[in-house]
Every structure is written in C-alpha cells, then in structure tokens.
Amino acid sequence: MNRAAIAIIAAVGLVMSSLIVFETMFGARDDAGCLPTPQLAAAHSGQAGPGARLRLIQANLKISEPTHHFASDLANIVGRDPDFVTLNEVNSRSDGQLTRPGYGMWRAPVSFDGRRSPARETAVLWRADRWTPAARGFIRLTRPVRGHYERLDSRYATWVTLRSASGTQVSVVSAHTMVNPRRDHDTLRKHEDAAGFKNLAWLAQQLQKSGPVLVAGDLNTYYPHNGGPGDEWWGPLPAMTPVGMIPTYRALGKPAAGWATYDRGGTFDWIFYQTGALVPLRQNTFGLYSDHRGVQADFSAARTADAEPSAHANRAAAPALSHPSVAGFDAEQLHNAAAIIAAGQQLGVPLKAKAIALMTAIGESGLRVLDHGDTAGPDSRGLFQQRAGGAWGSLADRMDPRTSSLNFYKALLQVPGWTSLPPTIAAHRTQHNADPSYYTPYWSHALRLLSALTGSSTVQALLADGATASCDTVLAAAHGLGSVTWPVPANLAGTDEHNFGHRGSLWSSFHTGTDFAVPCGTPVYAATSGTVILDHTQAWAGPNLVKIQSAGPGTLTTWYAHMESESVINGQAVTVGQQIGRAGAEGNATGCHLHFEVHPHGGTIYQDPTDPSAWLAHEIRMQ
C-alpha cells in the first residue's frame, strides 16, 4: 500500500463519518466493474448539458489577517457568486467565521487533532442551493522534515464530492502545500514536496471515478518556473498532468491582472481541472486584504455522447465563448483551433507554423479531441492523433489541446528548413504521415481559420506567396520595429545601469554585459532576429539563459540572463521585438533585473563582449 493510501486511511479512520462517506463514494460499481462518470450538471439551472457555467474561487486568507479584514475578504469572495470556494490558512478561524449564508462548508473536525490542527487550515465551501455533499475527507500530503521549516511542513488537503439536484457529481479539493524548498537547497525537503504532490495526484485520480475533479490551492510554486528542464522536478506539474489534471494557466494563459497572486510576486495560487471532463472558459485574479489575491475560474462541462450524439464520443466541448463564425466549422472546432493558435502565441512561433498546425489538426482529427486511433495508428489520440511514446508525452498531454499543440510546434521547429517547405511536407516531416501530400486539401481551411480567429490581415500575404514567406517580417514592419530594439519595454530603457566592464567580488573577471533594473516578471524581448540557443550550463546566469544567434556560428549573438522564465525553445527562429521570456533574479543575482550581452562574433563570455549600452544606442539611433 502506498503512503497516500495509508495517509488517507489514517485520516478518515480517526473520523468515522469521513470513513463512511469515503466508502459510499467508492462502493457501487456497474456491471462492467467501472464506476459511472455522470455528466456534469448545469449548476445554475439544475439541468445537465454543455455550456453550464461553474465558478471556483481559490483564496489564501492570511492566518494573521485581522478578523474584520478576514470577514471582508470572505464577503468579497462569496459576493462573486462562486459554486465552489477553496480556502487556505484558515485553521485559526472558527467554523462560524467560515460559514456564510447560502453556503455549506467542510474541513477536518476539531476531534482529529485539535482546533488549530494543520489538517483544519484547508476548507471547501459550496452553494448549498445547488449542491449537497455526497462524500468528504482529508489526506496528509507531507510530513515535517527536520530543519528551518519543520513546523510548516505538515500539510493536508481537504476534499468534498458534491451532488447536484439531478444527481451528478463534482469533487473539489483544497490544498496548501509545503514552503517551496527551492531556495534552501534541501534535498530531503524537495523529495518530501514531490511525494506530497504525488499524494495529491493520487487523490485526484481516485475522485475522478465519481465525476469531474477540481483541485485548487496555494501550492507554494511559481507557475512559470515549474516544468522546465531540470527546474522544480518536485513541483505539481510532473505529478498532476499524468493523471489528466491541467492548470488553468496552461489552458488560458496569463490572467488579465498579471501573473502575481502573492504580494511579493509569484504565481503561487493554482487551479487544476480534469481535462476531458471540464473546459476552462475564463480566469481572473482580484485583490484582497490578504497577502494573496483571489483566483477565479469559470468552467463548462465537456460534451458527452449522451449530450450530443456523434461519431466522436468523447470529444471536447466548445465552451460558451464568442468566436467569429467560420463556414464549415462548429463552435467546438473553433475553440480547439483557438487553443492551437494560443499555444503558438505562447511560444512566439511564426504565423506559418500556426497555419501548419491548424492544417495538420484538421486533417488528423477534424479539429476534435479524439479518444481513439485508426488501423494505421491504434494508439493515436487527440487533436493531432499523436501516438504513444516519444515526443508527444503522456495520454493526458496528447488529449489536452494546448499541450499537444505545444508539442507539435516543438517538433515542427526541429524540422530542417521547415519555413521553405510546402506546408504538407513540413507537416509530414513532423508527424510522418503515410502520404506526404495528405494535408494539402486542408491548407486553405487552415488559412481561413487563422485569418478569422486572429483578425490578422498578414495571413493574406501568406496566401499570396504560397506560404513560404516569413510572415513575422511583415508583422515586425507593421509594428515599426527595425533590425534592433530594446530588450525590455521601451519605457523601461532608462533602467539601463551602464555597468559593462565593472569589476568586483560579484564577477570572476569583469562584468561582460549591462543590467536593466526592471522588476521580476517584466517581458524580455529579442533585441535582434535570429535562432534561439538555450544554454542551461551557465550557473551564474540561472536556468534560463537565452542566446540569439543572428546568422549561424561566428555571427552576432545577443545574450539574456537571470530570467525567471523563457518562452522560446532551442532552435526556434525569432524576430526582433518578439517576447522570449521574463526578467527575474536567477543565478548569481542580487535582485530582479535583466543581464544583457552582445557578442559581435558569437564568442564565449570573455572572447568578444562589447558594451551593450553603447551598441544599443548606436544601432537604434541609426534606424
């Protein structure tokens, strides 16, 4: 028996009512030996069906927050009409303080380990007129590890399975994980944190047997850092995505109010949804008296065969979003097309790459998330019919529109000379179709979709020249960019500290670049066009050192160091002014900033550095 099972049995075993509802939840099976997964009910109408809005709000309400601020924050939260609320740091609050008119609430009982037990610091609230609890419980995620954070490392998750008036169920999990071990370099704590997320994933996987699952909480992990090469392997993504739990940030991107959910910076508050069962519609953050912002996300139910008979029994639902009408495509297909385009924007790929991705998905799946393959590829799945193993990731990855799109783009960009190939050949060399010309009939449809969904007239240039031109060149010209631009937003160009050549204890020889004293999270742009080289071997620069080589080895190369995240991949072609990451304080850094270097001949760090401040001033002035 694994540790997660032991932990949950220990928890519910001490509280008999929890044990009973746990058995109720997992007790009844159908004749096939499988638990039925009922369709999600429309939360506001009591009727099942796609398009029903479900709203979840996650909030960490600081344990030391004054009572009147706590009451105001909770009133702010429930005033936004959520179906579900997940709360953290509430073990100092009484049950009465957590209860609000019209809402039910559950957390571990006092009898488990005292009123201020760590098990009681997570809670779930729900609209009592829409939902009634069918099962509930809690699970220990991590145990204390000797050291500085020992008293803070005992963490739990609280869960409630809720049933609508029509009998359908949704499970909601509130989690607050241990303080991130990233800064203290404690290997034992990293392994404990990883085990905690595996326990959380195990719980989500068990709850999925009864219907859709939502997991939310302060996970003490900054979202843009997580999942990178060698970066925070102990975090939530490596554990949660294999069981089909995807963060809303991955599906919807940056919230309108920005990435930070914590007053000191960092996206620590997450919402995970079960892909294939729920479709994220929109998300936002809002201010609270607490030191964390509230995170709000709306979802609709995924379509099922019962809701809409179709040959594609488990295809993803079209959410209630406003998309332009495109002849020959329904709302579901338009939603999936938008996901493909959004993934391309995330990576900053050229328009031609987005069109090729759309063309491929139309040809492979008809822009539907298929849960079956064909005779040639029985293990093919998803929008791109990507096969098991290799570069396409797990089943959850292949069934997730954004993740499968990102993996397609990454493979496409590795195809030599893809920009000059006919689109169908570029797609064939990416996915290896039996017929290299198979995708040709779908090219014009892809261009229509790209034009309609992006609103970009530049796609017309793509049509005119047979899709062999670099459309980003046209885009750069349209935005008034020359061959060189500032690596930070132009209004922050004055933050340049002009410290090239400085010497001191911070540098082994001398400072080979200049520093832009911008806040963490500030967008970083390609100062020049070229090909991306990711260098993860330079500890001083942090894990996200990006180099842009203008025209091959021995040519002008610009460097971007200390970034908190990178948004490009190795070998990617980028154009001047394209975002490549966000400023940070990684590596040998004393605070947030961008370290920018210029190497005219592509040399190593001390071979040919030139003064970036003077170089930028000259190049931009000459344009």
Features:
623 residues, Glucose Permease (Domain IIA), 21 strands, 19% strand
Helix-strand blueprint:
Layout: H1 3-13, H2 16-27, E1 54-60, H3 67-78, E2 84-88, H4 95-98, E3 103-106, H5 110-113, E4 122-127, E5 132-142, E6 155-163, E7 169-176, H6 187-207, E8 213-218, H7 236-240, E9 245-247, H8 248-252, E10 269-274, E11 278-286, E12 294-301, H9 331-347, H10 351-365, H11 395-399, H12 401-413, H13 423-431, H14 443-454, H15 458-464, H16 471-478, E13 514-516, E14 523-525, E15 530-535, E16 545-549, E17 557-561, E18 565-566, E19 573-574, E20 579-582, E21 594-599, H17 612-621
Parallel strand pairs: 1-2, 7-8
Antiparallel strand pairs: 1-12, 2-4, 3-4, 5-6, 6-7, 8-10, 9-10, 11-12, 13-21, 14-20, 15-16, 15-19, 16-17, 17-21, 18-20
Account of the protein in words:
This protein folds into three domains: 279 residues, 4-Layer Sandwich (Deoxyribonuclease I, Chain A), CATH 3.60.10.10; 148 residues; 132 residues, Glucose Permease (Domain IIA) (Distorted Sandwich). The longest helix has 21 residues. The strands form four sheets. A six-stranded mixed beta sheet has the order 3-4-2-1-12-11. With 623 residues, the chain is of the alpha+beta class. Helix 9 crosses helix 14 and helix 10 crosses helix 14. The radius of gyration is 26 Å and the shape is globular. It is built from 17 helices and 21 strands. The N terminus is likely disordered.
Structural class: alpha+beta
Tell me the quaternary state.
Answer: single chain
The largest sheet is:
6 strands, mixed
Instruction: Write down the domain tally.
Output: 3
Could you give the distance between the termini?
67 Å
Strand content: 15-25%
> What are the segments in which pLDDT stays under 50 over at least 5 consecutive residues?
1-51, 225-231, 303-323, 455-482
CATH architecture of the largest domain: 4-Layer Sandwich
Mean pLDDT: 77
